Amino acid sequence: MTPHLLLVATANAHKTEEIQAMLAPLGWQVEDLRAHPQLTSPEEDGDTFEANARIKAEAASAALPGRWVLADDSGLEVDALGGAPGVISARYAGVGASNADNRQHLLRELAALAQGKRDGGSARFRCCMAIAREGRTEAVFSGSVEGRILREEQGGGGFGYDPLFVPEGYEDSFGILPAEVKNALSHRAKALAQAVEWLAARLA
Ligand code: ITT
Questions:
Q1: Whose CA is nearest to atom 13 of ligand 1?
Q2: 98 vs 142: CA distance, rounded Å
Q3: Are 59 and 74 in contact (CB under 8 A)?
Q4: What integer pLDDT is reported at residue 116 of this predicted model?
Q5: What does the alpha-carbon distance between residue 149 and residue 183 come to, in Å, rounded to a whole number?
Q6: pTM score, two decimals?
Q7: Residue 2 CA, ligand 1 centroid: distance in Å
Q8: CA-nearest residue, atom 22 of ligand 1
Q9: Atom of ligand 1 nearest to the CA of 56
Q10: Which residue out of 73, 79, 119, 162 is catalytically annotated?
Q11: Inter-residue contact 187 to 145 (CB < 8 Å)
């Protein structure tokens, strides 16, 4: 049987890698915007993860008629910072900021708040996935994973804020935990499980 081919409208190769790892055992092939260099990333000017996921999925699917497109908009919410960085997670330290810049910025914000605390308190990753075709969003799914924020980086695995986030029920950060552990319980895994079930029913 030919595997289903899913286009993920992302320029973030780490997201693609995680989605690919989660979908390969189910017989799906994944490609991202690197396979379509003619497509430019749209401006993500929505106020919510859902709005930005829709923007990305609709833009890519309008440019590629006939293709099912999945987009992921995600980020970290730290309760002690009123939910920041939230939808601006990718540019918390400014437009064009690297993952390392964003983590440093987060640590500075936490240092300004909570003197002497061992960790930065409760936090969660959220992910919203939109599925679109012909420029129209057909379905939206979301997932989250609760945990706590560290006051210093732990490990070098994963991407983004992973070295600063310890999921509930674990002692180590996503920067240390194996990818299989993250991919079994992450915000992205939870949204993707629903999205792929929805898609599979339509492609059967
Ligand atoms: P695309 O828009 O091209 O998909 P992006 O990285 O800009 O790529 P977002 O706008 O959704 O994606 O921003 C997500 C940011 O949130 C990401 O850059 C990380 O900083 C953070 N983030 C999301 N999921 C994460 C995860 O699983 N682990 C660590 N950080 C994550």
A1: 90
A2: 25
A3: no
A4: 65
A5: 19
A6: 0.96
A7: 30
A8: 75
A9: 2
A10: 73
A11: yes
